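Aim 2 progress update. The chain analyzed this quarter is reproduced below.
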Amino acid sequence: MIAALVLLAGCSQKAPESHAGVPVIALPVQAADGQSSGRFPGEIHARYEMPLSFRIGGQLATRNVNTGDAVKKGQPLAQLDPKDTADQLTSAKAALDAAEHRLLFATQQRDRDEAQSKQNLISQLQLEQTQDAYASALAARDQARQQLDLAQNQSRYTTLVADHDGVITSREADVGQVLAAGQQVFGYAWSGEREVYVDVPESRIDGIAVGQSATMTLPAMPGRTFAARVREISPSADPQSRTYQVKLTLDPSAAALQLGMTADVTLQAQKAAGPMVRIPATALFHQNEHPAVWVVRPADSTLELRPITVVRYGERDVMISDGLKAGERIVMQGVHTVSVGEKVAPIAPPHPEDAPQ
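Predicted structure tokens:
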């Protein structure tokens, strides 16, 4: 009787439950179109910005404009001491007068000797010497004329003139200072076309190309949006910030924007070919040197380490072109705490903001 009771009690016990799996944060991946719109802070600049300087050296005698002044094309901006150039101009004029007088005498002598040579009154050698003297006098006159033109140019170069409408952005020299040729006197920005400069980090520069469109807003002008287009991408990174400078040309309606305004630029990256998915950067694992992710098999909730092809690394996410399909569930966090074939129980992130967008 006792044996029968024990047997019946053993049969009434439930079978042991199967292992439920280790909880892991895992969610299905979402399809992406390959575009990554980036927002970058920017600064308004003129399309043409350059230093202004004298073509010749000398002592700065007068300065007619200051930083922030708007100037017109042809307006005198500064003046060098003209005494030296005036003396050179006077000397060049005197040298030209002397050369023209010698040429006149050489011309008359040549004409006389040619007439006498026809009558055999002078030797052939004397005629050749007269012709040589005329050729030398002619060359000396031409040289003196060129020296005068050069002296006149040097005299004009003592006045620094604006070659385009614009604004003075900086002042680099003071009255009385002795300047070398080409030494900067003013910083200058042309009126008209405006651009916005943005600094793009290394991880985002591959998604930007010349001709790409963008939009821009300014805190100083709320409610207004300006169209922009990428004109130039720096070929090398800044050695300090390790960012690449991108210059975007603005539409003509932005010509009135003040230089130095801060801007918020939204730049749309180029669309990649083929289906793609985006995963959080925390889901990325490396199998030796190759990127991979932990995929949850739908049949038995075990883990598979699958290699993937990364197209672009972002600040918080990674764009995948091969190895994953939309809807497949992957481990989003804690990728270094799981192993191949391990049974897991997928759960959602504890904080909604941690879920992939």
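The CA atoms of residues 232 and 247 lie 5 Å apart. The chain has a mean pLDDT of 87. These observations will guide the mutagenesis experiments scheduled for the next reporting period.
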